[in-house]
Amino acid sequence: MILGYELWTEKYRPHTLDEMIDQDEIVTRLKSFVKAKNVPHCIFAGPPGTGKTTAALCLAHDLYGENYREYIMELNASDERGINVIRETVKTFARTKPIGEVSFKLLILDEADNMTDDAQQALRRTMERYSETARFILIANYSGKIIEPIQSRCAPFRFTYLPAEAVANRIKYICEREKVEITDDGIEAIIELAGGDLRKTLNILQTAASTGKPVTADLVYAVVGKANPAEIRDMMLTALNGDFIAARNKLRELTRKYGLAGTDIIRQLHGEVFRLNIPDNWKVKLADVIGEVDYRLVRGATEEIQLSALLAKLVEAGYEMKKSLR
Amino acid sequence: MSSKSPPVPWTLKYKPKSLSEVIGNEESKKKIIEWLRSWEKGVPEKKALFIYGPPGIGKTATVEALANDFNMEIIMTDASTYRTEETVRRLAGRASQLGSLFGKKKLIVFDEIDGITGTADTGGLSEIIRVIENTRIPVILIANDAWDPRFASLRNISLLVEFKRLSVTEVTKHLARICAKEGIIAEEKALKFIAERSSGDVRSAVLDLQALAQGKDRLTYDDVSWLAARDRKEEIFNVLRMIFYAKSATSAKMAVNMADVDIDMLLEWIYENIPYHIKNPPELAAAMDAISKADLYRGMLKETGDYTFLRYIIDWMTAGVAFSWSRKATGWVPFKFPERVKTASATKEEREMLEEIGRRIGKRCHLSSSRAIVEVLPYLTIILHNNPKMGKRIARWLNLTDEMIEFIMKRAG
């Protein structure tokens, strides 16, 4: 029986830079900031679950010590409605200098790429005005969505997906601590589903472990909403066979019933395209469409509509192939 | 879903074959049978029957079912053939004299006579009167409004039978019968809701039912409760028709301005219905590409707040879709309600509850409310189901209330 009462993503979140796994280059640079007791404005960019927020919190811990919470403020650009709220909060927060060796406070602004350009312009002015007493760490999935004037004032850090080996080691470490039995194919299944996203990895692991059974690949797929690659393949084949409406219904099932995110579907689709039994020129064409869909989602388009357009392209591919066989 | 079978309007598929299958208006039906029986004893005093009542309540269906029961052949004309007295004479004139010498007994039906132009003294209407005067076989007239002054002479020589709007109970029963035949398990509350909106028009109720339920296993109240008013839906259907079958790029674009339809919503309607109208794969891909471009510009509008993108949204969702295909209608195709909107239309309270749950999880897990809902909540939900004890402990650690926990469990079903 697992005696868990909290989410493992929090329980096993590193507290110091030394505890961070992978992202070595980033950790080294951050440690040098700690040593100098000076931190520039920073942008932490990269996909979800790669340690951006953790790195910011660890940096704060190492910089200020155990009571670091008093010196930092965490804001989320998606939650704090409007730049005015952020500006007012920052004003109050940065009005006083902290006591101690470090002369500034740290402001961590998560999901900064969700701010409109106008809001970012206002943020830039705020950053400049209070840079004596407050340093900003902007966290974003895509640094490209941060406006140029802010980018040029910040030290950039690019976080990347964790390599499979590092993820596997982390899974094994936690299973040992939590006394969870896990098979090799169970580990592989989790990595397949989560990619290099550590938050997702731990969420899947904990969810599977919560059944109290040994964590096998079958259990992982069964428990985590059947987000099984086979179903994605099935959806693609349905489209290739020309039944668009059925394929779209499958897509709806994957996203709604099983809660699969569009980005997950795209990643798996991309992997599948090159395994499909279709002419190579169509593989390239479809990969192009997949890339276009990914790009459009970044621009705020709707997952289902974009993915449906991709399915329609698959229908066309199937049709053209049949025609050329005749 | 059974997307393969050719779409047949359920109003046709479930047209009554016998009078016993026609719902409602029992008294009127009895009166018609009596009148028809009286012909067996020779030509009665009133040689014409005048059935009137609002649209969609089964006037024509009754006559057709009756002819079936009495094994009669209907010689039917409707508004489109009434243009001139010449056509009326040709169609009905000779038949009225033929009697029953050969083959089946015959029955002359003038449907939709509201559509006849001119006065009682001229054109088609005067020819109908002449037919009635000379006929040896039964004549039935059908109209919405018998009290139109133009019909004064017709009223004098006909037996008037009124058809009334059907009651909610009658319409609901009919819908339930269709659901049973289609293998759809429907909540009575859902059917009653459709029946109520139809205001006694069973035809529109059946069309609504088909749009909402075809291809489904079950129909719940939630599936239908969001329905917009019927006339509003008609409005959307017309706009969709104008877009899908546009004659020119300009007319496709104009469709958007024709009616007061929310652009966002219209985009969803078009997106939902493309594959039902556009089947040829290259055309389908092109049309989906067009609507996905409209969606891209919609995303950019939302991201930037810049309304100049609106014109590209409209271009792609109207002219873009229309000119991605040949625009040749292939039979009758029903318009379907957008699935995406249906499932997204949670109530305001539910949305607020969800948002608060997201906020609380986010606070613990360093995430925004929306990302907490997408990235953490699904897993918490599964844990709550697999291992309620552990799930509840985690939920409390996340500062979720018992009410919130219950909400999460219920939401997952």
**Which H/E pattern describes the elements of chain A?**
HHEHEHEHEHEHHHHHHHHH
Rg value of chain B: 28 Å
SSE-based structural type of chain B: alpha/beta
Decide which structural class fits the backbone of chain A: alpha/beta
Beta percentage of chain A is 5-15%
| Sheet with the most strands: spatial strand order of chain B | 2-3-4-1-5
Number of H- or I-type helical stretches of chain B: 21
How are the strands of the largest sheet of chain A arranged?
2-3-4-1-5
Strand content range of chain B: 5-15%
Distance between the termini of chain A: 61 Å
Range of helix content of chain B: 55-70%
Biggest beta sheet attributes of chain A? 5 strands, parallel
Q: How confident overall, as mean pLDDT of chain A?
A: 87
The major pleated sheet of chain B works out as:
5 strands, parallel
Query: What's the total count of β strands of chain B?
Result: 7
As residue ranges, the low-confidence spans of chain B are 1-5
Mean pLDDT of chain B: 83
Describe how the helices and strands are arranged:
The complex is a heterodimer of chains A (326) and B (413).
Chain A: H1 8-11, H2 24-36, E1 42-45, H3 52-64, E2 72-76, H4 82-94, E3 105-110, H5 117-129, E4 134-140, H6 148-151, E5 155-158, H7 164-178, H8 184-194, H9 198-209, H10 217-223, H11 229-240, H12 244-257, H13 262-273, H14 280-298, H15 303-325
Parallel strand pairs in A: 1-4, 1-5, 2-3, 3-4
Helix pairs in contact in A: 2-3, 4-5, 8-9, 8-10, 11-12, 11-13, 11-15, 12-15, 13-14, 14-15
Chain B: H1 10-13, H2 26-38, E1 48-52, H3 59-69, E2 72-77, H4 85-98, E3 105-110, H5 123-134, E4 139-143, H6 152-157, E5 158-162, H7 168-182, E6 185-186, H8 188-197, H9 202-213, E7 218-219, H10 221-224, H11 230-244, H12 249-258, H13 263-277, H14 281-304, H15 310-322, H16 339-344, H17 348-365, H18 369-375, H19 377-386, H20 388-397, H21 402-412
Parallel strand pairs in B: 1-4, 1-5, 2-3, 3-4, 6-7
Helix pairs in contact in B: 4-5, 7-8, 7-9, 8-9, 11-12, 12-15, 13-14, 14-15, 17-18, 19-20, 19-21
